[in-house]
Amino acid sequence: MTAFAARALVLTVLVAGCSGQPGEVAGELFADPPGATTSAQLGAEVATTVASTSTGPPTSVGTPGADPPSTSPTTTTIRITTTATPTTVVPPTTSLLPTTGWSAGSWVDPGTIGQPWGSVPGVLTFRGSPTRSWHGTGPVPVDPVVAWRFPRDGKMCSLSVVGDVEKEWCGVGWTGQPAVFERDGHTWVVFGGLDGRVHFLDGITGARRLPDFTTGDLAKGSVTVDPDGYPLVYVGSRDDLMRVIAFDRDEPVELWSLHAEDSGQPLWNTDWDAAPLVLADHLFAAGENSRFHVVRLRRGYDADGLVTVDPDMVWFTHGWDNQLIADVGYNLSIENSPLVIGDTLWFANSGGLVQGWDIAGLAIGVTPRRIFRFWAGDDVDATLVPDAEGMLYVAVEYERETDRSHELGQVIKLDPSNPSDPLVWALEARSEAPSGVWSTPAVHRDLLIVATDDGEVLGIDREVGSVRWTLQLPRPVWSSPTVVDDVMVIGDCAPAGRVLAFDVADTSVVPPLLWEVPTGACIEASPTIWNGTVYMGSRDGYMYALRDRR
To answer: How are beta strands 353-358 and 543-547 bridged, if at all?
Structure first.
């Protein structure tokens, strides 16, 4: 092991009650940057649009905010405050009985954690479900070969400007997990590429099922396919737009789009990396404009049997508050994918603010209310990960070198049922800045599996927060581990960019390597496992399908 790797293995475990700041439960404290549209103006802008277009049930739009702005000093200490008494609402459907450690709710049954979602067989969004906890279905290949590589006629590449520098981008980026699903007797693979296109492929042959849909810039997040059977895909791009695309025509057609400025002046930028959710005809979408949006889709079909939507935005909120801006400034966006458990919406942002929002009455016009706040100290791009016992795991980057980052570390376990002091444990997983964790962890049996920017894959005891084993891979590892049938599949950044499979059946030992398949460059994307095939994109310009010889 190199000295660099050994340095990253110095893991400090914090146990709740020994040290660390408690979480804050606060009202909606929204500050606007200099020159930005005010919160009141934003609410008025969107409310005007909704008033002129809405024909459905009553909705509430704009930024909630019953509590006064925070007056805490600019420090890394989180002040504990209290919320107003929760509004009593009648949920849109009968609440489900609690089956796990999570509170029951009408939006997503907590008992579905780790289960597939929707009426469409497949992995339809990043991590497969509204709880971001379903990785796919086996069998996992035993000795795979490349069944196909797309495209066959050259690489997926395009030019894009980041800052003032134009560069060529190729392949599939972070998070880049393809949607794989069954429709009309065919296996479909849909994903966005760094060529600025959305691709619709046959999962068996790798041939195009439809022509590519061209966006105006990179599409580097993960797409979401409608879980209710409508032939719709929801995908964001760096061209400022979150799109709803129909794929029941001879070529894909954009039916509607949400611009990053539709909810006001973006706080940071106008990209869309997070994979949205579709629940009960509502689209839940987070943007790098640092706002969260909920859109009622009004899906249907026209007289010719073609799918339609008639969307309107029913609610949005800022992803920041006064205290967060005081702590880290205005470099704030939302890049991780939202999850919903019971009646709570969960997401975090690039300032490290982990948030839970009560959405119980959203469908009948009750404004969501923030009920959980915890500051992790630095950028949280990895999606939050729940377990069935009611705990939430947070993976954090190390960029700003804040006191809070040094105090907590980069892997954190929270107990949302104790919002005033949710920290269970935390540990350090970093070297020098920038480092930490970009990859979304995986819950597997009694482990939390975490891949780090330093190239380490850590098997962490979920109960106590200690590291049981470590794998060292070529850094960085941004690919999120996918676990199906006790096999973990992940990509690395070796010069050849390998897809690797490890046996994680015995969680007490270092996982043995089962197989590896090289691509041609670093792999940032995350794999999808479906019915004997691993689908994985690489920065070499291609999407791969790996399966056993037949």
So the answer is: unpaired
How far apart are alpha carbons 165 and 173 in whole angstroms? 18
> At residue 523, does pLDDT exceed 70?
yes
How far is the C-alpha of 207 from the C-alpha of 151, rounded, in Å? 8
The tally of domains found in the chain comes to 1
Q: Are strands 447-451 and 423-427 parallel, antiparallel or unpaired?
A: unpaired
Q: By C-alpha distance, which of 292, 294, 299 is closest to 283?
A: 294
Q: Tokens in use for 181?
A: 């699903």
Q: Which domain holds residue 147?
A: 3-23+62-547
Distance, in Å, from the CA atom of 276 to the CA atom of 63, rounded to the nearest integer, reads 20
Contacts of residue 152, defined as CB under 8 A and 6 or more positions apart, other chains included, come to 206
Integer angstrom CA distances of residue 240 from 62, 121, 217, 244, 355:
20, 31, 9, 13, 24
pTM for the structure as a whole? 0.84
Whether 55 is in a domain gets the answer no
**Is residue 214 in a domain?**
yes
Determine the Cα–Cα distance for residues 294 and 279; give it in Å rounded to an integer. 10
Q: What's the pLDDT at 100? A: 66
Cis omega (within 30 of 0) for bond into 83:
no
Give the pair of three-digit tokens for residue 383. Answer: 């999606």
Q: Where are the beta strands (DSSP E) in 432-466?
A: 435-436, 442-444, 447-451, 456-461
Cβ atoms 520, 538 nearer than 8 A: yes
Backbone angles phi, psi at 57, to 5 degrees: -65, 165
Q: What is the mean pLDDT of the chain?
A: 85
Task: Determine contact, residues 199/212, Cβ cutoff 8 Å.
Answer: yes
Cα 167 to the chain's mean position, in Å? Answer: 26
Neighbour-count burial of 304, counting CB atoms closer than 10 A to its CB (0-12 exposed, 13-18 middle, 19+ buried) = exposed
Instruction: Please name which of 309, 156, 154 lies closest in space to residue 219, comparing C-alpha atoms.
Output: 156
Token digits of residue 392:
């939430």
Q: What percent of the chain lies above the pLDDT cut of 90?
A: 80
By the 8 A CB rule, do 529 and 187 touch? no
Exposure b/e, 148-159, CB count within 10 A at least 16 = b: bbbbeeeebebe
502-515 confidence digits (pLDDT tens): 999 999 999 999 99
Residue type, 34: P
Cβ neighbour number for residue 55 with a 10 Å cutoff: 7
- Determine contact, residues 480/442, Cβ cutoff 8 Å: yes
- Pick the closest to residue 527 from 464, 486, 483 (CA basis): 483
* CATH code for the domain of 263: 2.130.10.10
Residue 56 lies in a domain: no
In 248-382, where does DSSP find H-type helix? 322-328
Residue 84 confidence class, pLDDT cut points 50, 70, 90:
very low
**327 assigned to some structural domain:** yes
